[in-house]
Amino acid sequence: MINVNVEYFALLKDQRGCSEESVKTEAKTAQDFYQELQLRHKFSLSHNSLRVAINHEYKDWNTALSPNDTVVFISPVAGG
Amino acid sequence: MINVNVEYFALLKDQRGCSEESVKTEAKTAQDFYQELQLRHKFSLSHNSLRVAINHEYKDWNTALSPNDTVVFISPVAGG
Amino acid sequence: MFILTIEPIISSVYQSKLDSPEAGALAIFEGRVRNCNDGKVVQSLEYEAYTELATIEGEKIVTRAMEAFEILNAICIHRMGHLNIRDTAVWVGITSRHRHAAFSACQFIIDEVKLHVPIWKKEYYGNGDTGWVNCNCTHAHSGNENQ
Amino acid sequence: MFILTIEPIISSVYQSKLDSPEAGALAIFEGRVRNCNDGKVVQSLEYEAYTELATIEGEKIVTRAMEAFEILNAICIHRMGHLNIRDTAVWVGITSRHRHAAFSACQFIIDEVKLHVPIWKKEYYGNGDTGWVNCNCTHAHSGNENQ
User: Fold this and answer.
1) Is the Cβ of A72 closer than 8 Å to some Cβ of chain C?
2) What ipTM describes this predicted complex?
3) What residue spans define the domains of chain C?
4) Cross-chain residue pair B17–D146, CB shorter than 8 Å
5) Has domain D2-133 been given CATH number 3.40.800.20?
């Protein structure tokens, strides 16, 4: 069981109803962790439509999580 | 023998020493006319490097001249 | 240089930063808020960024452009917050000796920014609905945003 | 719109003419006087036009761009007379709904203007010589310009 910080933006922030939370999880990878949260909060987008950043860097979905990591799930971007 | 107006710009104006003149010529085509003037004024560029406009429109070198045409020989352009 | 700002983007301010006696070419791209998207009337919109990563990714893109093209300077500015129709959302300016490099780098930067920089856009429609662009998720005005 | 002007080109003046609520993209190209060309130090330069034909050919190019690309508006301004380093010699601005058309039309116009519009450029070099660009004809300062 580790503690992970999650920041939410845009659609995920709306669906979660908050912009930041600290979560205790047994998820080994970023993908496991997203699926856990998706189930809990009924996020509409599957991980296939998202990217994940850990500690402000894009990472693969199979990256392992470490205690106190900051994790951000990035829904399809639309800058410009 | 017809009367033709010639306007000079840029290099040809410098080489001719004036910007406009009226010329009596027996030249049948624009190309003949340029070669006549080139010989007379020692223009450095051959007609192959130039384009010709008659009455403010680009024309072929073999276009026949008519009385009171305005002819401009266009050295390589360099706008922009 | 890549900057996120909540201030209106004034083209002339950033153009003056690009002044250089060697520059024969300046290419600028401005992305502006349109009154219409995907057939829907847009009244205004809101940009939100994941600031830390957006800044890092934006700087990477500008640096890659400086390396990949024969350019003298490159600036990309992205506006955040609530924008109205005609407002400038993104501004890209490139100087170079010759024009082809400026055009290529300008297109490269805007293309890459749109693909990789974590910035999102919420559209406010004429009928009161809103929607996060690219997320396939228009919400009715009276709906519960948590659904 | 194609205009020859002897006044300095102020980008913001022409940008404001391109304002439109449908425009999602604005692409601008500015050609500026560089301090160096073909390895020679340039101090200033002079643009001369065959005004009647330049205006006709310039308008044709802008019209062709309006027909060939999905754009909303196009403006091309060319400065005439004596210009200093950093001055803007030519300004092209395009608005469109989507950005690719704006970039393409902007490049098309500047490429065509450089090929077909009867405008000439005389460079004044650091050593006092002058030369008409593309005419292979540098003249020494003390030389007889009629040779």
Assistant:
1) yes
2) 0.91
3) 2-133
4) yes
5) no
